[in-house]
Amino acid sequence: MHRYFFSLRVAMLVVLAGIAVASVDLFVNGFVVVSDPDHVLASGALVSGAGERRPLREFASGYWATRPRQDAAVKLTCRTGREVAAGYATRGVRTRYTVRADDCAAVAGRAARA
Fold first, then answer.
1. At 34, phi and psi to the nearest 5?
2. Which residue stretches of the chain are H helix?
3. Among 34, 42, 47, 61, whose CB has the most other CB atoms within 10 angstroms?
4. Which strands form 63-66's sheet, in the order they lie side by side?
5. 106 band by pLDDT with thresholds 50, 70 and 90
């Protein structure tokens, strides 16, 4: 028998337990995911009624996410400078939003006409 067999088995169980705990935590506490397939977002944040901002982080190309600590509005800032209200996030609720290219195109269209 390989002398590291037991320690590798324990290490695998620890990793699986960590994944299970993280999954339960996300399920219980909720999360916000913004999909940006056209890459038009510059940033995003959750803004609470008291003005506290919790930024969205880009985890993968075209995906922004965070976990709400309290009730907050989802505000997205496009590369064109336009701010888009993407809904409302509450702790314990899973919120998803997909940004369309025309969500951010309005400011560019107005600037071209002005």
1. -115, 125
2. 5-29, 101-113
3. 34
4. 57-60, 63-66, 31-35, 94-98
5. low
